[in-house]
Amino acid sequence: xxxxxxxxxxxxxxxxxFGRGEWFRSYQKMGAHRAHDNGVVGYHFNVWAPDVASVSxxxxxxGWEVGANPLHEMIDTGIWQGFxxxxxxxxxxxxxxxxLAGDTFFKADPYxxxxxxxxxxxxxxxxxxxxxxxxxxxxxxxxxxxxxxxxLNIFEVHLGSWKRHVDGLxxxxxxxxxxxxxxxxxxxxxxxMGYTHxxxxxxxxxxxxxxxxYQVVGYYAPTSRFGSPDGLKRLIDACxxxxxxxxxxxxxxxxxxxxxxxxxxxxxPLFESTEHPTWGTxxxxxxxxxxxxxLISNLLYWIDxxxxxxxxxxxxxxxxxxNFGVENxxxxxxxxxxxxxxxxxxxxxxxANQVIEEYCPGVMTIAEExxxxxxxxxxxxxxxxxxxxxxxxxxxxxTLWFTCCDFENRPSEHNKLTFSLMYxxxxxYILPLSxxxxxxxKRSLLGRQPGDEWRQFAGLRALNLWQMTHPGSKLNFxxxxxxxxxxxxxxxxxxxRLVNDFExxxxxxxxxxxxxxxxxxxxxxWQRAYESGGFEWIxxxxxxxxxxxxxxxxxxxxxxxxxxxxFQPEAYEDYRIGVPKAGFWRxxxxxxxxxxxxxxxxxxxxxxxxxKPALHxxxxxxxxxxxxxxxxxxxxxxxxxI
Length: 642
What we know:
With 642 residues, the protein is of the alpha/beta class.
């Protein structure tokens, strides 16, 4: 139903809350909304542009004539509003803003819900109320589910380069898949591979492909590269109906300087404070209440209107510290307490997390945070930032350092492999092997493994088994699952043809699929992922052989798993580990299966009876074959003799 334009006029409460930075669903009135005046359909516009002489809407509908459709300022708010009859869906527009000095310039709508395709820079009118969602059951379950005790295995995707159409002989550097094509192909692929969630690198409109979406120009507009806003809704709806959650990357750390965007919006800095010293973006001014309302409303917009199940906040470390990226000592700033903590940004993050928790039960927030800031996932009421999860960058750096070492150097680096368990329960961690690890000359994960081709694939299987059996949730970037040799390149699709052309890559894909589904099947790997009682070392000190072994505990004692991983290329026909319980332990996963590309040093799914001698501080032990550069998971099989 099309509302009357008066429904979009700000009430005194709206204006009051906007001024306080507490109008958390400001998107419901700000921007361009389809409306009517006595049956005449058009669009009602609201834009915040304080301290200017005039604002008018220009677009296709008035020949881009400045002043043809003037807006009127609401006293003491800086908000300009007006209804323009006859404007249809899909028309381009901007705001013509004239400063007090008489200069006129053109800006896209900060609350624009659609954008024209690049290199165009205009906003586009949209029908935001026409889509009918089919995921009611999913949303209802989400609101009553504790995701911290559920499996979380994320497939990180850049929508512009997961796959491309093959146009001619360009080997994948073709045109984009649309949102609708991805609703069919990507959803089916992620589901078949056993992932629980898709994480999309930023889908907000951005002008430069090479920014990967992290330099945003349209915070409320899904990028038009892949289709319409409704196309993105169909993609997310398809994910939910397939049982996949969707996490969206979000960038409050800064926005791009392109002149059509937020920069100098009223002729001077309005949304921004300073330029980021490293990234060249403009940092939001969180001191300004309307900026805080703009951003928190933006979070709820993606959750309310696009049914996002999670928000991954990019660059949190850059928000926490006043001098993040500042090298010149003379340029450094300090808080009143003498620290470099940016308390204004801290309070913004805390409030944003509180609002999501209050308004959107079951929706998760994730911090990409690389420093030692305490209690990132701690409750705000206890001084924490209030996130649900934090990327474990320490685990990622240490583990990749170790697995990239030549085999003869690994014994001296063994502590890099095990150190993460010293702090694994300080936060609710996600273990990321993300896009950042396969760009800028770092090489692909496969290419970083030492040795010949067999050892590289085996080493990557061992790395993934450690990630999957380690406490915390999991994230892997597209291409990791097939063992792509080249780095990720944003301008071409992942080399999925390798799976069809080479047995090694096909078996690599089969391994990741089997490991993902194994994770889903065994609750000990996720039920207590954030409790210290969910993990117990058997032996973490075997640096000479680089073998680690440990127990994962679920809610039930019968769910116990014993995990053993060998990070050296030597196999052992008789390897013994201590186990905490008498009875039988059955081999339920082995990374060295021939079907995975392994050498076949397995135990054939045998059951091993725990017996004397005592070992590793336990009363019982089991003896088995341990594969080279691989690992085994044993499930506790009780006292039964079968």
